[in-house]
Amino acid sequence: MTDPAGAAKIPGVLLAGGLARRMGGGDKPMRAIGGRTILERVIARLQPQCDGLVLNANGDPARFAAFGLPVIPDGVADFPGPLAGILAALDWAAANRPDVHFMLSAAADCPFLPRDLVSRLYAALVAENAELAVAASDGQSHPVIGLWSVALREQLRHALVVEDIRKIDRWTARYKLATVIWPTTPLDPFFNANTMDDIAEAERLAELDGG
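The structure corresponding to this sequence follows.
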């Protein structure tokens, strides 16, 4: 964890497990903004920062085939929520990337993620000798966007399966947590599209962000 080059060895998981009820159902990341799907935008932001990406989604993985990413479902049955997706990613890393110590998680409906997300989270984690790191902006923590230790996956599994813990911040409170704050000008990089009104706002923000 003291290796400053460690940020270059961190893969990422895009969490796409939401049901998009406020949009009438379907996959939120497949909505288009400025001619590109939200998922395309998220991948474009994170691929240069991560040592590989995987997509956490349930149901038929074929609907994401065009993106060329491994699709991993939740491994904990009937558990709605991002912690299940994060655990699935940590299990994937343990099985497929034994060289990896941390995974980045990000919501797949955040089209304007920072281009320095991984480097800043990892730098804070190292500087504070923390076990986990999360992003924040505008006085609000964004717990689904953070770095997770693969070594904590069994503790997370116990919290989910045995203790029925579903809120991310309830679990992260058990560990030393680094929080990294990003500015919100010209836009909040953690804006996420939850409603059709958000899609309209995202079109405007995309122009501020260079399209």
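Confidence is low (pLDDT under 50) at residues 19-25.
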